[in-house]
Amino acid sequence: MHLLKKDTEIKKFCLQARNERFIAIDTEFMRSRTYWAKLCLIQIATSKKAVIIDALTGVKHLEPVKRLLIDPKILKVFHGARQDLEVIYHSLGKIPKSIFDTQIAAMVCGFDHPVSYAKLVSKLIRIKLNKKERSSDWSLRPLTKGQIKYALSDVIYLKKIYSVLLKVLEKNKRLSWIKDEMKSLQKKENYMIKPKEVWKKIRFSKKPKNEINIIKKLAEYRELQAQNQNLPRNWILTDREILQIARIRPTTQEAIHEQGLISEKNIRKNDLERIIKIVNLTKKAIKERKGAKKLSQRITANESIKNMLILLLKLKCRKHGIAEKMIATNNQIQNIASGNYKKVPALLGWRKEIFGNDAIRLKKGEISLKISRGKIVLAE
To answer: pTM for the full model?
Structure first.
C-alpha cells in the first residue's frame, strides 16, 4: 500500500529508509484559508519504493519521519525546497539536514530560474507529467487514485532527476558551486517570519516618507493579526487597502467606513481603533533632507551603471550556461553599482571568476561592452 496512516507502518518504513544514501521528498499542503500552512501529505521515495505519509494523522505519528529528516547521514532531495522546508519547520518544529535542491542544481546546469519540476522531468527523462491534480484539496479524505498517483510522481521522478543532475555537476566540476546554497536552505532564519520586514513585499511607487512609515506599521499590524487569527493576510487587509489608508490618512473610524478604505468583509476582522492610532502616530510630515537633488543625481548615475552590469551578467551567464540568479541578485548588482562591495557573493569564489572580476573592471573603465556583428561582446 502506498498510503501510510498507521504508526507501525510509518515507523517500519522510516527505519528502512535510514539505510539509504539519499531519499526524495515532497509535501502537499493547504493554506488558501489559513495563515499557517496545513501539512497534509509527506511523500518519500527510497531506492526500493515510494510512499505517501498521511500528515493529518497527527504530529505524534510523524515522530519517525522527523527523526529521518534530521538524520545528517541521509541526503534529502527536494525540488524548490523552500516552501516544503517552511511547512515542515512550522509543522514539525525541525528543519531537515543534508539537503539537495534540484531546482538550484539545475541553475548551474543550463536551465533558467526558476525551472519547474514538470519541465525538468520532461527535459531530463522525457516524461510528460499530468498536472490535473496540482490544485487538489489535499485535506479531503479519502484521497482519490488520481491524487495518489500525482503525489507519488513528485518523488518517483525526483530520484531520477537528482541522479542525472549529479552526473552533470560532477562532469563539469560544479558540485562545489552549489554547496553554500544547500547549506543556506538549512538556516532557521529563512523560515521565521519577521512582521517588521513584510512591508518590503508590498509593491508601490516612490512615496513620501510619512506614507512609507504608515505602510510599514500597517503591514506589521496586518501580519500579527493574520498570525493570531490564523487567516490569510489579505483577509485582514489587502495591499491596496494598506496603500489607500497610507495615502488618505483617515483620522476617524467613520472616515474608513465612509470612504470605503477597507472592504466590509475585512472590516469585521480588524481593530479600526488600532489602525487609526497607527495613522495618527505616523502621519506627521517629515521635512525634506538637504542635498536631495545631489542624491537623485547619484541614484540616476548608479542606475546606468547597474544596467551595464546587468548586460555583463547576461553575457557571462549565457557563455557559461548558468541561470543569472545563481550568480547575482538584483540587490547585489545594485550594491556593486553603488560601490558597496562588502559581503556581495557575486564578488567571491567561483562567482568572482565568472562575473565579479569583470564587473569591477567594467566599473573602472578597464573593459567595455560593444556591439559586434549584431551581438554584445566584451572589449578591452
So the answer is: 0.87
